[in-house]
Amino acid sequence: MNEVISSLSDGLASLSQEMRLIASDPIYLWDLIGTFVFGISGVLLGLERRMDIFGMFILAFVTGVGGGTLRDIMIGSIPVFWMKNLMYIFMIGVSVVFTLFFKNKFAAHWNYWLLLFDAIGLGVFTIIGLEKALRFDLSPTIAIVLGTMTGSFGGVIRDVLANRMPAIFQKEIYATACVAGGTVYFLLNGVMAEYHSWVVFITICVVIAVRMLSLKYHWELPKFLS
Q: What percent of the chain has a predicted confidence (pLDDT) above 70?
C-alpha cells in the first residue's frame, strides 16, 4: 500500500513539474501540440493504408519526432529531445487513441483531415526549429533551414514508410510554406520583438495558410522538363 501511495505521489509531483514547465515555456507547449497533431496525421495515413495499430503508432511516432530528431543530431543536441522527456511519446500515444476514438468522424474526409493536421504540424514545428536554432546562436538563414527541416522531414519519413510520394518532392507548396513562415518570423521580430508570443502565433498561421491556400488554389512551384 505504501508503494502505491509513493508511486501516486511521484506521479503527481512529475505532473506538477510538467505543468510548471509548460507554463514557463510556451514554446514547449507548442512543441507538445505539434507532436500531437502530427501524430494524428500519421495515424490517419495508417488508417487510410489499413495498417494495424502498431503500424499506425510507428507512423505517428516518426511524424511527431522525425524532423526534430534530425535537427537535434545536426546541431549536436544529444540525446535528442524525446529521449530526455517521455512526454513526447505520451503525446504520440494520446494522438493514436484520440484518432482511433474519432475515426468515424474522420472517415468521410480522410484526405482533408490528413492535409489539415499535417499543415498545423508543419506550422508548429517550423517555429520549434527556428526557436531551437536561435537558442544555439545560429544565423537566421540556418534557423530557417532547420525550421524547414523540423517542419517537413517527419512527414517525409511518414510518407516513405507508407509507400507514398512525399509532398516535398512534388510540385506542391510544402517546404516553401516553412521558408515563408521563417522569413515572416524574422521580419516581425525586427519590429515587434516585445510581442514574441504574437510573432510565434502569426508565423504558425502563415505556414498553415500558405500550405492550405496552395492546396485550394493549386499553387505550384515551376517544373523543368527535359
A: 88
